[in-house]
Design brief:
By secondary structure, the chain is α+β, with helices and mostly antiparallel strands. It has 3 domains: about 110 residues, PAS domain (Beta-Lactamase, 2-Layer Sandwich); about 55 residues; about 150 residues, Heat Shock Protein 90 (2-Layer Sandwich), CATH 3.30.565.10. About 40% of the residues lie in helices and about 25% in strands. It has 11 helices and 12 strands. It has a 5-stranded antiparallel beta sheet.
């Protein structure tokens, strides 16, 4: 006996968001991924105008498809949903006909473009890591010895300072020497990657550990941390210390972008739209409702020594990018001034 095909099960298992509308742009049905993308249940969406929860650009693509009787591919857009979340998507609409050949509506396919955006974004241009690391490590080594001499001389000057002005100058020299020493210590993180140990890591356990530590900090008193993980994601191969450094930096940045009380949400999900180096992949998203990043800063934020912080070294995000790249992944940042920032870290999952 032939088993009956469950089309609803197939519909819901499709990796992309699908919305079916009638000629008047009212929603007839949608799959599970569409519910997740637009944060609305199919029961609530059915019968509603698609413009109630979807951007008008998608309606235009659907109308064009129905009017011309052909599949229409829309431009990539970055709408802000009613929930306040900003997404990057592309709509593909095809006309839907009855068995008699009459136009019934349209089938809209929504493609998540996040996976392609980080490949094209100026803010994630690949840097010649090996040359830069060798240069920086060489400079760090050469600077440490004379810096120690400068600090020692400043301390001697402070002990025999003839007046308050000379003492103040000596203290400034000592303070600046300590600051440069701290910067050189930060540069040690550029040590050859071969020293790092790859092993199976429960990425969710690592994230929960970081968030627990951050919630105990002073900033944790005013930040609400939300966690939403896909527990079906298996352990990944990586260096625990390096990845901890990356996510600690990103979560700290998210909290620091919030002036008063706010929220930082950390989530994970499978990526079905694309593969990283031929492997299945996952994304970790860190979303805040802080001040946001201006467009001109967004393009430079992964450059070495670029920072908007008064006491920042400008190496945190640069190192994060290098570490994730060496894990076979990538980072994409989307931000809107006054609305907040979303950082997406893509990592491969080998052996799945």
């Amino acid at each position: 006996m032939t088993k009956k095909i469950d089309f609803e099960e197939i519909f819901d298992s499709l990796p992309e968001s699908i919305i079916i509308i009638d000629k008047d742009l009212r929603v007839l049905d949608m799959n599970d991924n569409a519910e997740s993308t637009f944060r609305i249940s199919r029961e609530k969406a059915r019968g509603q105008s698609s413009s109630a929860f979807m951007p008008e650009e998608i309606d235009r693509v659907a109308l064009m498809a129905m009017g011309e009787g052909r599949t229409v591919i829309g431009d990539e857009i970055k709408p802000t949903l009613r929930s306040g979340e900003r997404i990057s998507i592309q709509a593909v609409a095809s006309p839907l006909f009855t068995n008699a050949g009459n136009l019934k509506g349209a089938v809209i396919q929504i493609k998540d473009m996040s996976g392609t955006m980080f490949l094209n974004s100026k803010s994630t241009q690949e840097i010649s890591a090996s040359k830069f690391e060798n240069l920086i490590l060489g400079l760090a080594h050469e600077l440490k010895n004379p810096l120690s001499g400068i600090r020692g001389a400043a301390q001697l000057l402070a002990e025999d300072a003839p007046n308050k002005e000379a003492l103040k100058c000596a203290e400034i020299i000592t303070k600046e020497a300590d600051r440069l020493r701290a910067l050189l210590d930060t540069l040690k993180q550029l040590e050859p990657f071969a020293k790092e140990v790859f092993e199976l890591i429960d990425i969710h356990e690592l994230l929960m550990e970081i968030i627990y530590l951050e919630s105990m900090s002073k900033a944790g008193e005013r930040i609400q941390y939300k966690q939403n993980y896909d527990v079906t994601i298996p352990p990944i191969h990586g260096d625990r210390n390096s990845l901890k450094q990356v996510f600690l930096n990103l979560i700290k940045n998210a909290a620091e972008s919030i002036a008063d009380k706010g929220q930082v949400e950390v989530s994970s999900r499978w990526i079905t739209e694309h593969r990283l180096k031929g492997q299945n992949s996952m994304s970790i998203e860190i979303r805040d409702n802080g001040s946001g990043v201006p467009a001109d800063s967004l393009e430079k934020m992964f450059n070495p020594f670029y920072t908007t912080k008064k006491e920042g070294s400008g190496l945190g995000l640069f190192l994060a990018y290098q570490i994730i790249a060496k894990h076979g992944g990538a980072i994409f940042v989307d931000s809107e001034v006054g609305a907040g920032t979303t950082v997406k870290v893509f990592l491969p999952i080998s052996g799945v």
